[in-house]
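Z., the sequence and structure:
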Amino acid sequence: MLTSRPGALLWLASMVVTSIAFAAEGDEKRPVSFQYDVLAALSKHSCSSGACHGSPTGKGGFRLSLRGFDPDFDARTLIREDLGRRTTVFAPEESLLLAKPTMRLAHGGGQRLKKSDRAYLLIRDWIAQGCRPDAAGSPVCLGIEVNPPGGRLQLPSTAQKLRAMAKFSDGTARDVTDLCVFTSSDEETASVDESGTVTPKERGDATILVRYLDHIDTASFTFLRDVPDFVWTNPPEQNFIDARVFAKLKELQLPPAELCTDHEFLRRVYLDVLGVLPERKEVEAFARDTSEGKRARLIDALLERPEYAEFWALKWADLLRLKSARLGSGAAHKLHRWLVRAVRENRPYDRIARELLTASGSTLQNPPAGFYRAAADMNDCAETTAQLFLGIRIQCAKCHNHPFDRWSQDNYYGIGAFFARVGRANLPRGDETLVYSLPNGEVTQPRTGQQVQPWLPDVDPSRLAAPGEDRRELLARLLATKDNRLFAEVAANRIWGHLLGRGIVEPVDDFRPSNPPANKELLAALTDEFIRTGLNQKELIRTILKSRTYQLSSQAAELSRRDVKYFSHASSRLLSAEQLLDAISSVTGTPEAFPGLPAGTRAAQLPSPELGTHFLKIFGQPGRDTACECERGHDPKLTQALQLINGPMITAKLQDRASRLSKRLDLSADRLKAACQPPQANLALWLRADSGVLGGDGQPARSGGAAAAWRDQAGGKREAVQPDASKQPVYVAQGIGGLPALRFDGSNDLLTSDKDNLVESGKERTILVVGQASKGGHGGCVFCFRRSTAGGGTVFAVQHGVFAGTYYVYSDGINVAGNTSLPLERRNILDEPFVSAFVSRGAGQKLEVAVNGEPQPLSQSGAIGPDAGAAGFTIGSREDIPPGGQNWQGELSEILVYDRALSPEELSAAGGYLARKYALPTKYPAKPLAAGPEASALVRELVIEFYYAALSRPPSEEEVKDGLAYIGEADEPRQGLEDLCWALVNSKEFLFQH
């Protein structure tokens, strides 16, 4: 223990001499530098990393700047801080700064240093020298140089040692290898240890990033290996793309896959260009075409279809964060339409970028101005612009220099300076924003407190000074131009990534030295072509699609199975959320319904994700909260499998009455044959819209035309007529179940007969009706026995109408006791097609009502009375009620009237007939599809049709045989066909792009 000041000074002097002696032996006789030795040492051993003391709040009460990017802050912490001093100049090795990372004292970060490490010795000597900051005017590091800078190495080869030399402003150079951090861009190809020794593992490319404080350099290596049995087959080259790709594959001895089949190509190019599956007729036509150049002609044709603009506008909408919640509903729709139009017109890429970057005015009147509502402040604008147009993820540089890139905090705010004079004002309409330029506005760098001038990478600062000009105009002129190679390079890479499933630089919007392109020559050639065509996106897409590389099979050659980045074969990837939902809708024939949008709208046409479905979100539809491609999910997940296997959507689409299966199966002759006939005994009236409906000219009614008469099909000569053209219902050829129907408008449409009575007054009767009420309508009177008189009378009226808040199903006119009603909430069952049955067992008996075979709980069940009134019957109204009061509002397809009460078995048979005929889900037993050659042929054809719809190819005979065998074991063919379709849309061949 020191007892006197002179003794302490003597001891300190000896320590300084010793430390200087060490520095002289180990580091060219120079004092230890605080910034370039101590901070570099702390960075090297991760003490100042974001996971340790370099985090914003530090660790254990000790905070450093991230990776030593703020030497002044670190100097205050390590040299000037009064509390928690971590250095002891009198006993350097007892300092907390050394005792903790060597684990002589407990340390939450574990052991970081050994006493033999150069970093330990440098920190120890710096403390012994008095913890001095670097003197003013000390040499400044200008950068580092790594040797060797890269090259080609033949495997098996020994490890390669890298050496990093730092160059300083005084002309000196210093070996800083032991103070550098080394990382590999591809650990599977080559790894690198703390000393900078590169160990190759597999053939391929790897770039080693070397970082010394905020200075970086790279060494890029190609590792080659002679592969037994490798033979280069000289595949034909379609264009320059193939030349660059195949040259790389040949060098790495990775044989390319064979050309994909016509069916694989057709499905792939439809999904990539249009986002939809081809129709069967398109598949068959392409297969029949045996001429040369048919693939190129198809590509040209697809690029002119409207779906191309809609699908590729979707990609732009994701990047621009186009969503109603951010832009407002009106502005979102208008910006979406602007994007579709820009793609359809094939506007050059630089023009689109300029229109976005320089947009001003109302977001409703000038949709590109929505760019500045989505990017709501200067920081957001800087980050979005850098990532979208320059491939720079510059967000990390907001608070400190980028740890893995060359961008500084000054660069971040330099880009932001272009947007410091953008003004925004919300207008009274709420979802409208006014974007305008302010006369002044500057950006202050938060760490230095200095004003920052506009900055762009690789642009001479003298070109960035334009006083009085809107800085956004300057930005657009320098950034969005074919002369800016990085701008063109990022766009070309992004388009390549969309079509090939992976960018040449991957991720496609992350250009940095530590993330090099997989094929530099390919990216350079692609960028050259993009620039040559005037940044024509459609032409670049066309060029890529016509290359052999794009058209390679996804079945890799044996020696290339592990390749994931050199494009030796097509990538197999899950369909995007929108592609998948649209594909399922296409296969089932049941379009998805999006509230508030026109029927038939595809998922790829949605202007905003809020208008989508839960299914889309599960399968990776982005919320459009960032401008990053990474926001869209691509990897398969368990929730997706559960949605497909157990979710209700596919089943609901298959069972929809408008589905592909229903239209083909339920409208077939076999379906009508299976429906057979209803019970014939005592059938007093049989009105069928598929037979006996006449127009005003006495001829069979035409679809959309008026129905003037409806003739009985039960063998009698009765008919209901309407000579007044203003009261005639409309005949529709495809109504309920795809069969004809008569449509009543609910005001005064009706058909009447004044002939003899169908049923003797007060006697038993049974009435069955197939109908559908208009959505949200009041329903009304369907059928009325006897014609009532103007003064009121007693009639038996079959109704499904809501009057004065009560849901009536029967009324006997003025006899209140005879009214019968249902709970009002049951009215909604009429919004879908229904079969209703009314059974009366005579005057004074309670009425029995069933809908879709399910008995209804009558809330007001008065007994029926005797019928009175004029002879005949009425369809669609009760004539004693003023027009519009109780008139039927909806469709009617069939009415059966029996002059007796059917037994339960007979009622079941009649209801089953109607259920089968109109494809209605009821409790009546639906007779299965009749066996026989007609049914077998139909089922076989449906098996083939589902394969074309789902997989864009015909099934093999073995697949047809297996499908028919499975369907034959099902309870009925429809169930088996539903299962087959479900299996196809759950297959890997359907779910994946390949």
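The first strand starts at residue 141 and ends at 147. The radius of gyration is 40 Å.

Let me know what you think.
H.
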